[in-house]
Structure formats: C-alpha cells, structure tokens
Amino acid sequence: MFRLWIPLLQLVELFLSTMVHMLYGFYIFSTAVAGDLSQSLAEYFSKSNTNIEVVVKEPTNGKTSVDDLPPIVLVHGIFGFGNGRLGGLSYFAGAEKKDERVLVPDLGSLTSIYDRARELFYYLKGGQVDYGEEHSKAYGHSQFGRIYEQGQYPEWDEDHPIHFVGHSAGAQVVRVLQQMLADKAFKGYENTSENWVLSITSVSGAFNGTTRTYYDGMQPEDGRTMKPVSLLQLCRIGVIIYDWLDIAWLKNYYNFGFDHFNMSRRKMGIRGLVECLLGHSGPFASEDWILPDLTIQGSIKLNYHLRTFPNTYYFSYATKQTKKIMGCTVPSSILSIHPMLFLRVFQMTQWRHPSDATPPYKGYRDEDWQDNDGALNTISMTHPRLPIEHPHRLVEKDSDCLPLQPGIWYYKMVEGDHILFIVNRERAGVKFDLLYDSIFERCRKHVFNKKLPTMPNEIQHSHSS
C-alpha cells in the first residue's frame, strides 16, 4: 500500500506544480497585455491635448556624451525576455532606467547557453546569427538564424569593451560568450579577445547547476535526459505545440527562441509535429536546450572549458531563502518567499542524490546543496567552483573590496528568492534599488577601461570611496 502512495503523491505534486506555473505565466502575460492596452488608450485620448514641441539638441562642448559610455548589457535568464517582448513589461523590473546606456537583448528563453551566447554576439555586432556549422549539424538545426540589420553596439572591440549583468542562466551565457571571444570562435571576426568584456556581474547566477532540474524532470543519473512523467515533459509538449502553431502576433509577443529548429507547421507539417512530440527530432531530442546545461553534470561540462580572465572584473550576488534550525535547513520565511517558490525552497532543502546513481562529482555532499533560493542552490551562485574552483572572495560590505582587482570573483550573500530582483520591483522594495544602484555605480565608478583617459585625482577618489 505504501508503494502505491508514493507515485500518487508525485502525481499530486506534479499537478499542483503545473497549475502554479500556468497561473503565474498567465498572470505575467495578462499583466503585459493589460499594460499595453492601458498605454494605447491613454495615448489615443491624449492626442488631441498634445502640443508638438521642437527640441533643439544642445552641443556637448567637448563633454562626455552618453555614446562614449560603455554599454551595460542586462542578460535575462530562463523563461526570460528582453525589450520588445511582452509589450512594455520589463524582465529587470525597470532597472534599465537607472543608467543612461543600458541594453536589454531578447535571447531564446529556453535555448541552450551556447546558442544564446551566439545570439548575444550578433545582437551587439549586427549581422545574421551564425550558430556554427559543426554545432548546427551535431544538433540538427539551421546554421543561420535571426538577422540584425543594425547591431546595438557595432563598434564593440577591445578598445570599446562592455559591462555585462546576467540574471540566473544569463550569467553563464556571458561567461560562454567571453570564452568564445577569447577562442576567436566567430567566423569573420579574427580580432576578438576576452578583453572585449570589461566586467561581468551575476545576480543569482547559475554557475554550477541546480538540483531543481532533477525535481522538475531531468534524470539525476546523467543530467541530460528527461523522466517520462514530469513538469519538463509537460513544458516540452506545450513549447512544441506553441512553436508548431506559429501564430505571428503571439510569437512576436513571446518567443521561446527555437526558430532555428524550424518547428513551424509551415515547414514540418503534421508528420514533423508527431516526430517532435515523440522525441525523435527537435531541440528536446538533441538536448540542445537550456535544462541540460543547468544540471550539475551539464554545468561541469560547460565549466570545463570556461576561464576566469585576468583583465576582467567579476562580481556576483548569491541569493538565499533558507536558514538552519536545530541543524536542519528550512525555508527562512513564509511571507517573504514568492508563493510560486515556497514549496520549491522546501523541496530543495530535502534533496538527496539517488544512492544507486554515480555522484555528479568527486566529493559531492547533499548538505552542501541544501541552501537555495527556490530555483538555484546558493553554492552554485557564488562563483565558478566545478570542476575547478576559480579565484574568489566573500564581500561583507561593498567598501571592503575597493579597489576592485580583476580576475577575482567577488561575491555577496543576499537574503531573497530567485525572482526577487526581476519583473515585480515592488516586492524587493529598498533592496531592489540598493542592489541595482550598487551594480551600476560599480560599473561606472570603480571599474575602469584602461583606454579611457582618467585624471589621477579621479582614480584616487574612486579607490578611496
């Protein structure tokens, strides 16, 4: 009888988890639509009362203009979106308005970290996304993707480097992109180098994988394949049907990013849909999507090729929503955790790697992975540590790490769940402003581009502040 209860409880948990995610997704989507309708109506009724004003741009008189500032690029995580998607909704909850030159690219929300890194490069430089001939053949998708007629920062090079800020999987995307630049992996761009990246800041970054992937449906034995009955299987079916229907206005509003797999009904027909649903073709069959990259095994595979470079500044914020009570790890609060994540925080504190499965790495201990924020384990967010630990330093107060040294992962612990600093600014309150203000101040004040002229007294002032 007890054996019958276990699968029944698992089915109940799957049903509840599915409903919670669907309701939250509907809430986000409906909020975006309502915001767009409200803005359109306001613009319509205000047209008659609007006076046309001619603005004359003042000369800069030699002063530094916005165009002289290195861009700060905000890179979203899984299920995320950039400017231009979901209407006027902001993934980073409006943080992009805190600085004069911020870019928020729209990358594939479920595509692999490799594919997203390629897309990010062409978003900035311009041109048609080239996923690489070898990679495209290996994973069964088109070599070329979206065309960017005009790059957002075409002058990008070693003399014009960029600050990157990544949330969740977005942080790992930036690391892979920097390694690609160092490896000169973009055809036609033989002059790239790791020094094109001035700094990388991670907010709840997925550096070393997460045990959440196993709860949602990835097999803990290999970290690549999916369990036959799981939340991810339901997600897979929904995404395939969404892409196959290929409803233009809907995909313009939100796109999972799998256009290069050509899953549209216009290209593959009914037979192609059946093949995808059966798992014989498409991104989920080839494992060229985001979840295999977020398992502990997948992250180790990625990290094996990624370096921390001596001329780049690194900073990360590791979020945690757990605490110890009598030696047990439990959720730190009921009220401060998002309702969608409370059960997940608790589940992740209870994770045990299957005793009959090979541990994901030598020295693995379940207790190291108990602290979490509902989506990622805190141990994964501080700095790259698997399979080799990179140089790092814990920061208690921002002033303690000044002057910043390149080539070191400075990390700070923050009380909060995985979505505290995105989408809904009101939830984080003062914490939101403190975190993003410190990020933008660090990029603009404490991280220097060696090519930009800086007065000696300015350097002294910045280091001592």
UniProtKB/TrEMBL annotation:
GO MF entry, a single one: hydrolase activity
Subcellular location: Secreted
UniProt domain Lipase-like C-terminal: residue ranges: 71-183
The UniProt record lists the keyword Zinc-finger: no
One Gene Ontology cellular component annotation held by this UniProt entry: extracellular region
Keywords: Hydrolase, Lipid metabolism, Secreted, Signal
GO BP annotation list: lipid metabolic process
Lipid metabolism is among the record's keywords: yes
Protein name: Lipase-like C-terminal domain-containing protein
Organism: Acacia crassicarpa (northern wattle)
Biological classification of the source: Eukaryota, Viridiplantae, Streptophyta, Embryophyta, Tracheophyta
